[in-house]
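Example record

One chain of 106 residues, shown exactly as stored in the release files.
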Amino acid sequence: GAEASLLLGEIRLASGQPAEAAEAVEEIAKPSEALGLQAMVLLAKAHEQQGATEEAEAILLRAADAADLPFQIQEALSEAARIRLERGDAASDPAHDDFTTLVQLA
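Predicted structure tokens for this chain:
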């Protein structure tokens, strides 16, 4: 089930296998699924490790939008902000100040 997929994804990500981690959680990485938000965050981390930072950021922003709990929203937005800042394109974005604030709060 979802728990097994999430655990497998976490193990594969920790083992330096981001492609396999993404594959393990892809089916459950949807807000409507049990553990879907956690799977979305893990999927974003797998994409980031593979260098697909824009895709990772997009997944995190979708997770933040779908989240109900404040800590889930903050986690997703702070991770998206970190990725954007590390990529170096936050300064050209109108949301730069919001992202900088979120990173500082995290």
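Notes: The CA atoms of residues 48 and 56 lie 6 Å apart.
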